[in-house]
Amino acid sequence: MNVAMVRLFLEVAEAGGISKVAARRQTVQSHISRQITEFEALCGGPLFRRTGRGVVLTELGARAAVRLRAWLHETEQLTQDLHADAGQLLGQVRLGIIPSAAHPLLTRLHERLEVAQPGIQLDIAEAQGTELDAMLDSGAVDLAILIRFRKPAGGEEIPLCVAQTYLVSAPGDELTRQPTVPFSRLAGLPLVLPRRPSHWRSALDDAARGLGFQLRAVLEADSLTVQRELVARGTGRALYSVLGPYSITNDLKTGRLQASRLVQPDLRRHLALALPRHGKLSPPCRVVAQTIQELVASWGGHITDEPLNDELLGARTAP
To answer: Where is each HTH lysR-type domain found (predicted)?
Structure first.
C-alpha cells in the first residue's frame, strides 16, 4: 500500500472530482485518472462512480476511505513519533482557518515555525465555519481556527479570544461616527450580508427577530473581500455590513471604511482552536497548537498584532 496513492485517493474522494485534484496539483487529468485506475485495480474493484459533475464513492470506495484514512493517520503518526524520538519533528499539519482570522496570524505562525521547527510543513485551508466543521469531522484538516457563539468549554476546542461585532460603512457616514450603535438601528438599513445557510447569518437574523424586525439584505456575498468592497465603494447609495474586527482593521487604518461597535445585543463571538477529532494530537500538531496560543497571548488576547481600538474606530464621545 503506497502512502502517496492513498493520499491521492482520499484527496479525490474529498474533492469529488478528478479534474479538481488535477488543477490543484497542476497536472493533467489523465495522469490522475490513470493513477486512480491503478489503485482501484490494487483494491480489487471500482472505488469511484463517474457522474456528470465528477465522481462519487462506490460502496467499496466508501469502506476503503474510512479504513485508509485511519491507516494513513497511523502511518503518519508513526513517522512523526520516530522523528520526535530522534529529536527532530517532521510532518505536515493541515490547518483550517476562517478567512477573517487568516492574516497576519498565519504569516507570524510560519515565521516562528521556520526558525523553531523547520521540519513542520503547514497546509492551509481557508473556509467558512460549517465547512471547517465538516473538514474536521472527515479528517481533511488536523486543526482549525473557527468561530463559536458560545465560549468553548475545553476538551476538543481551546478558547483563543473574543471578537466584537461592528456595523461597517463608507467613511463619513453619520450612523457609524458614534463609538457604539444599538442593534435595533439596523432596522431598514440596506445591508450586505453573507448568504444562507450560514451560522453567522442565522445569528444576525435571530437577533433582529428578537427585536421585532427583519434585516434588509440588498446584496448577499460569502466573500469578506466582496462585502468590504461593496460597502467602501457603494453603488450610488449608502451600504452597510456587519463584520468582525479582524477583517476590517486594515481598511479602517487606510480610511476606506468606518465602523461602530454593535451593542444591545453585543453579539460577541469566540475564536477557538479546534483539535483533531480522530486520533491523538501528533507532535507537530501539538507544536502548532501551542505556537498559535502563544502568538495570540503575546498580542494581548487578539488574533492579530494590531487589535481594533478606539483610535482605529475614530471613536468619539456621543453628544
So the answer is: 1-58
